[in-house]
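quick one, 124 residues, struct below
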Amino acid sequence: MYEYTESPGGAAAETDEPFDPYDPARWWTRRRALVPAYGEIVRGRQRDYLFGDRPGEFWALYFEKDLLTPLGRPDTDFLRRWMLRESSTDRCWVVDFDPRVYNAPLPHIECYAKVLSPSPVNRD
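---
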């Protein structure tokens, strides 16, 4: 898992619009690896409802709750500045909407993400 930062190892970057995941002045810095997660592609009417006519491939992603606890931050900080990279395929997703944090029945964070293609080249 990577966080969008102002410099390598630096503080989280502002993610107000316009959000450019390929800005060469910013970096993807590894914050936590091997994140337990589940994802599924968003298709059909749900995709149209959530994303309208925005181009791209979108996914629903589910993460373990308290994901950012080791960083001393709340789950709600998982917002438009985090990227997941699947090491076996080099495929990347960037969080595109506010996450929702659920308490029951299975504690998890749910968010929607967009496939990044190509993947950012300045990851650590």
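Residues 44-51 form the longest helix (8 residues).
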